[in-house]
Amino acid sequence: MDEGVGIRVEGLSKRYGTGDTAVDALKEVNMTVAPGEVVGLIGPSGSGKTTLLKCLGAVIEPTNGRMTLGGEVIYENRWKISDLRVLRRDRIGFIFQAPYLIPFLDVTDNVALLPMLAGRPNGEARERALGLLRALDVVHRAGAQPSELSGGEQQRVSIARALANRPPVILADEPTAPLDSERGLAVIRILDQMATQYQTAIIVVTHDENIIPTFKRIYHIRDGRTYEEAGAGRVLPQASLS
Amino acid sequence: MTLHLTLPPRVWLAALGVALVLALGWVATQSGPLAPIKVIVTRVNTGEVSPALFGIGTVEAQRAYLIGPTTAGRVKRVLVDVGDTVSAGQLLAEMEPVDLDARVASSLASAAGGRSAVAVAEAQARDARSRQALASTEARRYVALGQDGILGQSLVDVKVQEQKSAAAQLAAAEAALAGARGDLARLDADIRAAQQQRGNLRFIAPIDGIVTTRSAESGSTVIAGQPVLELVDPLSLWIAVRLDQGRSAGLRVGLPTAITRRFDPKTPLPGKVVRVEPTSDSVTEERLAKVTFDSLPEGLSTGEMVEVTLHLPAIANAVIVPNASLRHRGSQAGVWLHADGQLRFIPVKMGAEGLDGKVQILEGLKPGDTVVVYSERALEEGSRIKVVPSLPGAAK
Amino acid sequence: MISLAGRDILHSSSKFVLTGMGLGLLIGVTFTMAGVYRGMVDDAKVLLNNSGADLWAVQKDTLGPYAESSSIPDDLYRGILGMPGVAQAANVTYLTMQIRNGATDVRAMVVGVVTGELGEPDYLIAGRRMTRGHYEAVADVSTRFVLGDRIRIRRHEYTVVGLTRRMVSSGGDPMVFIPLKDAQEAQFLKDNDAIVSERARTAANPALNRPGVPGLLNAIEASQTSNRNVNAVLVRVAEGRSPEAVAQAIRRWKHVQAFTREQMEDILIAKLIATAAKQIGMFLVILTIVSAAIVAFIIYTMTLGKIREIAVLKLIGTHDRTIASMILQQALGLGVIGFAVGKIAATVWGPAFPKYVLLLPADALRGFAIVMVVCALASMLAIRAALKVDPATAIGG
Q1: Largest alpha-carbon pair distance within chain A?
Q2: How far apart are CA C240 and CA B206, in angstroms?
Q3: How far apart are CA A31 and CA A10, in angstroms?
Q4: H or E element: which one contains C26?
Q5: What values do phi and psi take at B164, rounded to 5?
Q6: What separation in angstroms does the CA of B67 have from each of A217, B93, B220, B236?
Q7: Which residues of chain A have pLDDT under 50?
Q8: Are the C-beta atoms of residues C111 and C175 closer than 8 Å to each other?
Q9: Edge-to-edge strands of the sheet including A38-42?
Q10: Bridge-partner residues for C126, per DSSP?
Q11: Please, how many CA atoms are within 13 Å of residue B132, restricted to the half-sphere of its CB?
């Protein structure tokens, strides 16, 4: 396959349980996301979207199929990477439904934690963190504790954290769920910017009707199967996420 | 690059940490076995040592008189009681005479009978003398007549024999008289004996004094030697003092003493040693002495316990240390000398010691030396010490 | 890499420090209990050392004079003094009783000593030694007497002329030293009422009160009220002689037992203190278990409060061992604070205890090691919980 292909999923299946009580959460899922692309993943609850995200995030083991992340085959009927943790740390960025910042680290250290875990010296890690915070327009809160930030500021810090190790892939799980429509759009706009700037492939799991029109490509998932669809690709208004 | 650090908790925690470490350090070095031993030192001075001996004394009477019968009998009456003052010659008590009065009367009666016997013997002797005189006159006449041939020899012999027999009868009568007189003397002596025995039943005070004990009442039976009354001369009260043998150096007659009575310990009374007993008490290991008051106080009683301090001559210009500074290493007595920040044990030779705890040092120290007086723990060579002005717990 | 444990502690510092102080008080109690035991052993050792004796001669077949009562004639010491190898021998009596000082009563061990001989305390902290043969006393400061106090022991009053420190019986009762003769009288002479009734009983006994022998009754009464016994003879052995050899020689006397210093220590520590030692040992075990439980609960609770953060950390790529080390460091940090607070607290409140509390540096180090081990073990519960967290739970919800 091509080098630099962000995410490629081929024939991914996940079965829970055995025998009569087995449940197929994912059935032969196929998916591709190019670097720099922000793709939506839409489906009702129970459709398997969370399962797919967990497989892509290397926190659960699929039953069979193939996953390629950033040009590297990470799973082909079994894990091809020995240390999944390192994979998650260096190659995947996570954005959650809530910011989930570490409460006992300040904003800078929350972002700098990932590079430090990857072995970067503290000073360099903090420099990189400040750069990202600046890009996300939240650097003026660099020394604050997470509890002192507004919801939107926290969300921006969590985006910065996801980008900290410059992963080729970002998995975003309902990132706009707690936000109002204006701020939700702002998040998607920022993700767009970051994807373009850092050539990251981003999957956004959502059911937020507000932001769905902004995706150029959408994957629907139902009963464990995915269907691709072209999205509306609406241009986002300039909005600030405060 | 501004890193806004949250100062307050960080600084506060750091300060707490430093405080904890310092406190731990203080705890480790200032208390427990690692800490230096606190001591109080003093300089050796010269001064006066007033050695003294101390003993417990009992007030006694120099002489006590036990008044009692010389034979067993029954007490008839006791005329005095405990505490009474009596004068010499006063009748104190009497025993029952029992049959003694009857015996005296019988002796008197016997003597009277004896006197009549003597009278009878005298009359008989007079009678014999007169017959003898007559017989001798007749014998002389008859002898003269016989010589003249007037009377026959046998008549003369009869009269001569009558004269001899009358003389013999006179001798017998005179002997009988002597015997009767001797009997009378014996009977008179019996009277005196009975009367003397009767006299022993009356108890007469031998001295002026005070009755201290009344041991028998009228009607009780006492045996020979058992006292009925005890007398003492109140002016003869003195103190029997007992002194530890080990602490009786310098005991001699004439030492001035201070005597303290129990109820008034603040007022010592002066006295002096009048006798040092030649026998000591080997069981209690004490020496015994007798001390008199310079002037007898009021209300003194025998058996009262007093404390006696005997003052020995003071020693001036002695090198003195408090006796609390004396320590022992094995059998050696000595002090801990504090010089040049070092602690050294110096054996010393001790002299006299005063009752206030000052001890004279004969050898080993000189005035100006600094010695350890009080210490928290036992000291050893090389102990770390810290000189302090006072030790905890010792405050007055 | 920053210290996650350090940041977490800084973040919830007050809770952490307060917990540490609470744990510290518990540890302080543990140290104090160990100190009480050490103090009891030290009491026994001090009792033996301060007497200055190498041997104790006591009544045969007894473990006296401290563990059992012992009574020997007071002229026995003369015979012992004459034996080869004996440098000093002195009579001594011991009696534990209540002493009155004004309105208060103090329980103390009254020791009768011959002034200037073995048995007298070798060092004072105030005042002077006894100079008079009667009615003076040297008391230990733990009696709370001061110089000049007039204390009452049985029938007489004594003036406190000197004060000592750490002169205590093996049971921790303070000692009061008085002259031997006074102590003999105090030990065996009863109060006035008892003496009077004893005299009446003797006088009513026709065998003792014979009219034919005047003075017999007085002599009998005098012998009833005199005491010619002591509890032990303290012996100091001459330089270079073996105490056991001299003790053997003394034991050959028919009615006397002699103990060396080692044997006395064994009697006091093994027999007298044994029960107390077991009790204290059990207490220490219980306290350690309680401390461990508390540390375990605290750390577990703190960890449970961070379950979400731990899942996130695991998801974004933190090693299990980093998380485990964070929890372990927190537990050890708690232990360090607890140890410091406990050691300081034990030192500060130790002197207030009625018995002597001895805190040895070796015990402190041992305690530190145990605290660290206990905290490490106690953190296992929380570490196990943390390791079981599934990072997938951070996704979805």
Answers
A1: 57
A2: 68
A3: 7
A4: helix C13-51
A5: -65, -40
A6: 145, 9, 15, 18
A7: 1-2
A8: yes
A9: A92-95, A169-173, A201-205, A38-42, A217-222, A225-230
A10: C163
A11: 17
Which DSSP letter does residue C102 get? T
What backbone phi and psi angles, to 5 degrees, belong to B242?
-115, 130
Instruction: Name the strand (E) or helix (H) holding C45.
Output: helix C13-51
Angle, CA of B312, B314 and B320, to the nearest 5°: 120
Extended beta strands in B200-246, E state: 202-204, 209-214, 221-222, 229-232, 237-244
Residue B331, SS3? coil
Q: How many CB pairs under 8 A join B and C?
A: 130
* Residue of chain C whose Cα is closest to the Cα of A121: C1
What is the rounded distance in angstroms from the CA atom of residue B353 to the CA atom of residue B349? 12
Nearest CB neighbour to B4, from listed A126, A130, A143? A143
Q: How far is B298 from chain C (nearest CA, A)?
A: 24
Distance of CA B46 to the CA centre of its chain: 42
Strand B85-86 with B64-67, pairing: unpaired
C-beta of residue A6 within 8 angstroms of C-beta of residue A169: yes
Q: What is the CA C156 to chain-centroid distance, rounded?
A: 30
Residue A129, by phi and psi: left (phi above 0), alpha (psi -120 to 50) or beta? alpha
With CB atoms and an 8 Å threshold, state whether C395 touches A53.
yes
**Residue-level length of chain B:** 396
B1 touches chain A (CB under 8 A): yes
Chain B residues within an 8 Å CB radius of C50: 378
Cβ-proximal residues to B309 (8 Å cutoff; 6+ apart), any chain: B52, B53, B54, B257, B258, B259, B260, B268, B355
Size (chain C), residues: 397
Chain C hits for B16, Cβ within 8 Å: 17
Q: What's CA C271's distance to the chain center, in Å?
A: 14
Q: Which residue has the tokens 């196929």?
A: A30
Give the mean pLDDT of B337-363. Answer: 88
Do strands B256-261 and B305-311 pair parallel, antiparallel, or not at all (unpaired)? antiparallel
Tens-digit pLDDT profile for residues C38-47: 888 888 888 8
Q: What is the ipTM of this complex?
A: 0.87
Residue C223: phi, psi to the nearest 5? -70, -30
Q: Which residues contact B230 (CB under 8 A, 6 or more apart)?
A: B64, B65, B66, B67, B211, B212, B213, B215
Residues 6 or more apart in contact with residue A126 via CB below 8 angstroms? A108, A109, A112, B3
Roughly how many angstroms between the first and final C-alpha of chain B, as a whole number?
A: 66
Q: Print burial letters for B167-190: b (CB count within 10 Å at least 16), e (below 16).
A: bebbeebbebbeebbebbeebbeb
Return d(Cα A11, Cα B31) in angstroms, integer: 76
Tell me if C343 and B284 make a contact (CB, 8 A cut-off). no
Residue of chain A nearest C392, judged by CA positions: A59
Q: Which pLDDT tens digit goes with each residue over A160-204?
A: 999 898 888 999 988 888 777 887 888 888 888 888 888 889 999
Q: What is the pLDDT of residues B154-188, one digit of tens each?
A: 888 888 888 899 889 999 989 998 998 998 899 88
pLDDT-derived band at C135, boundaries 50, 70, 90: very high
Prediction pTM value: 0.71
Specify the DSSP class assigned to residue B340.
Answer: T
- Show Cβ contacts of residue C37 under 8 Å, excluding neighbours closer than 6 positions: C273, C276, C277, C280, C281
Q: Which helix (H) or strand (E) holds C158?
A: strand C156-164
CA distances to A217, B287, C77, C87, C250 from C243, rounded to whole Å, are 102, 34, 17, 11, 10
Q: What is the pLDDT of residue A236?
A: 65
Confidence category of residue C175, pLDDT binned at 50, 70, 90: very high
Comparing CA positions, the residue from B342, B362, B241 lying closest to residue B292 is: B241
**Beta-ladder partners of B64:** B232
